[in-house]
Amino acid sequence: MAILVVMMVVFAISIQHVDLNAMSDVGLISVLSPLYWVALFGIIASLCVVIHIDEAPEYVYVLHMLAIIFVMHSLPPILYGTLRYSWAWKHIGIVDYIMRTGTVNPSIHLLDAYHNWPGFFSFNAMITQIAGVASPLTIAIWAELGNNVFAFGALLIVYRALTDDRRLIWLGILIFFLTNWIGQDYYSPQAMAYFLYLAIVGICLGWFRTSLMTNLPDPSRWRWLARLRPARNFVQSLIDRSRVVPKTLEPSDAYTRAGLFAIIIVALFTIVSSHQLTPIMLIGAIAFLAITGQISLRGLPIIVILLTLTWILFVADHFLGGNIKDMVTSVGQVSGNVGSNLINLQNVSAGQRIVAIIGRGLTISSFLMGIVGAIRRIRVGYVDLPVLAILLAPVLVPLGNNYGGEILFRVVLFSLPSIAFLGAAIIYPTPEHGRPRLWGALAAIANMLLVIAFFFAAYGKEQQYWFTQYEVEGGRYLYTFAPPNTLLIVGNGNFPSQFLNYENFTPVFIANEDKESRDRIMSDPAGRLSLWMDNSAYAATYLIITRGQKIESDTLGELPPGGLAYIEQSLKASPRFTVIFQNPDVTVFVLNRNAMPVHSVGAP
Amino acid sequence: MIKRFIWPVIVATSSLLLFVMVQSGSTSPLRYPLTVWFLLVCSGMPFAQSLRIKHLVTRWTLAIALSVSIGVVVSLGVLYSGAWSTQLLLNITIAVAWAGIAADLMRSWQELRHEYLGEAR
Q: Which of A118, A203, A250 has the CB atom closest to B54's CB atom?
C-alpha cells in the first residue's frame, strides 16, 4: 500500500508541467513526463505482485485498480480543463435541447437517433437542472473517469461469478482496462448502456446461475438422435464442465433474487430507451446463456426482445421509417460493415499511421491472447461457456448492420470482457497453475507493454480530441448568437460543435465533399465558398475554421497539407468575407451581406 | 444494530438537503455535488442495501446501476408526459428513494424481529 501512495504522489508531480501545445501527431504520449510512466508502471507492477502472491485482502486490489483507472483516465479532465472529443459536445447539445424545450423531436433534421433513444440525455438534463447549472459540461468532463470506475465494479461482479481464483479475476480486470482503447467511455449513451449491460450479465451469472442439468432429450426416444449420440454427449459434457459455479458467490433468499430481477428489468428498460446497439448485444449474450442452460432466467431473452421491439416500433418509429432502407441494405454486407470506418493508412500522417497500426495490433494481440487462454483453460478441464456467450454475442452483429461505420469497434468493446478474462488465463488457467515467480514477472512485463500500446491507441488522437479554451469560446459565440435556420460551413466536425441551440444550424463539411469539389475549393477558396454562402434559403450563413479542424484535416489527409489554413488566409484576404470573431484558435467568417454583432477579437 | 440505519439516514438527509436547496433556488457550490451524489448513488442505495449483499463493491455497483436506471425511468416518464420541470423530477426521485428506505427499514425490522424471537426462544 505504501508503494501505491508513493506512486500517486509521483503521478501528481508528473502532471504539473505538461505542455499540451507541444503535442505531436502521436498524441498525449509525446508530452507525458518520464515520471508519469514511473507512477503508472509502479502501480501496475505493484498490482501484479499483489495478484501473484494472492494473500492481500480485497481492498488492496480494489485500491490498486482504482488508482490505475484514475492515473489513466483523469489526464484529460486535469490537463485539458475542457471537454475532449467533438461527439461529446454534440451530446451536450441534446441535453441542452431537452433542458430548453422539455421535450424531444423524433423527426428533427439532425442527430435524430438521440431524440428517438433519449434515456441518457433526459437523465443528464435532469441532473443538470436539479444541480441548478446551465450545462452538463462539468459532469461530462469527468465522465470518462466515472464510466471506467462504474465498469470496473460491474466487471468485478461478472468475473466473481465466473471463477473463485482471485488471480484470474484481478489479472483479467487489469488486462480489460489496459486493452480497452476503443474510447466508448466518454460522455455518451454507449458508456452508460455498457455499464448496465455488464451489471445485468453479472447479476444473471452471479445470482441466477442454474445448478441443474439441462434436460437434453433422451436419445432412446428418437432413433435419429441416437445416431448423434457422440455429438450429443460431447455437447452435454461441455455444458457440464462449464457449470462450475464459484463457491465465493453469496447465497441469496427469495427477496434478494426478486430485488435483483427488478434491477435487471429497470436496467433493461434504461438500456433499451438509451441505446440502439446494446440491447442487440444483450439479447445475444443472454440468449446464449439461457440456451446453454447457464442461467435459470430462460424467459429473459424474450423480455429483452419484446422491450426492444416495443421501443423501436412504438417510440422510435420515426427513426425506423427514415432509416429502414439503409438498415436493410447493410444486412449481409459483412466486409463493408466491418471496414467502413477503418481509416485509410495511405492518407494519414506518419504519426497517425503508427497510432492506427498500434490500435489494430493491440486488438489483434488481445484476441490472440484470448484464444491462447481459452485453449489453455480447455486443456486443464475448464469450458467457460458464459465467457464464450459474452464473446460470441457481438461477433454476429456485423452481419446485420454497420452502425454508422462503427460496428467493428463496438464488437471489440463487447467482446473485451471475455477476451481479457481468457487472456489472464494464459498465466493463471487454474488456481494451481502459474505459481512460480517467473509467471508473475511475465504478467507484469506483458501489462506494461499493453499500457504503452493503450496510450498510443486510446490517446493517439489527442491533438485532435483536445480543444483549447479559445475553441470553446469560438463555438460558444457562434452557437449563442446565430439565428435559427443558419447554414454553417466548417472544415470538418472536429471542434466544440452543436452544444447549444443545435437545431438552428445546418452544417456543411468541406471534408465530406468529393475530391472534385474539394479541388475546386482549393483552387479558389473565396470564390467557391462565397457561392456556397450566398444562399437565400437560410437566415444567415457562417464559416468557422478552428485549430482542431486544421489538425484533423492535416493528420487524416482530408485536404492537402495546410489546406484549411490556406482557405482561412484566402478568406481573410478576400473583400467578400468579413471576420466577425477571431481568437488564436478560431476564425468565424460571414459574407459581407450578413449582419451579426461583432465580438471582441482576442483572448476569451 | 446502528449499522442498519446508517444508509436510511444518509439518503433521507441527502434528499431533504437537496429538496431545500432546489426549493430555495440555492446557488451554493454544494448543490452540484449533492445532486450528483443523490441521483447517482442515493436514489438506488436503499434498495441495494435491502438486498443484503455482503460484497461491498457489488453493493455499490448495484446501487449506482439502479440509481442511473431510476433516473432514466423518472426523467423519461416526465419527458414523455409533457410535464418537464425540475421540481417534479426531484420530487418523484425523492419519493422513489424514500420507498427504498421504507423497503430497507421493513427488512431490518423483520430481521430484528427474527433475532429477538430467536433469542427469546
A: A250
